[in-house]
Design goal:
By secondary structure, the protein is mainly β. 0% of the residues lie in helices and 45% in strands. It has a single domain (17-111), classed as Jelly Rolls, CATH 2.60.120. 21% of the residues are buried.
Length: 117
């Protein structure tokens, strides 16, 4: 009998934050055997850095706070309940005191974070 589960469970209260271009991120479902998607709870910092991904699509969902997403020369207003899908190759950064849920597809790969020189 196989005791390996066919699903994954994450308890964000047990995940330590990791520095990221946006601020601090608690990352769930970051496993070598999971390439489908991951889920991150991100606290946006005041000095978030514009960045992009060559392969990854990101879906931002605002949990708390207000601010904006700078993308493609636009400023998208962010507040709780707003969600934005960010395709690969789009330079972006969130600005403001925000907590977001970020769903990267495929799963987050630290090698796929790029910055303009």
């Amino acid at each position: 009998m196989n005791d390996e589960k066919s699903y994954l469970v994450a308890d964000f209260s047990q995940i330590s934050p990791t520095p990221c271009p946006c601020g601090q991120s608690k990352r769930a479902f970051i496993h070598d055997d999971n390439k489908v998607a991951s889920m991150h709870v991100v606290e946006i910092s005041k000095d978030s850095r514009p960045h992009f991904h060559k392969k990854m699509t990101e879906i931002y969902y605002v949990l708390e706070g207000e601010g904006k997403l700078e993308i493609d020369g636009d400023a998208v207003a962010l507040k709780p309940g707003v969600s934005v899908l960010i395709p690969p190759g789009k330079l972006h950064r969130a600005v403001g005191e925000l907590k977001i849920l970020n769903v990267p597809v495929p799963a987050f790969d630290p090698e796929d974070e790029w910055f303009e020189e």
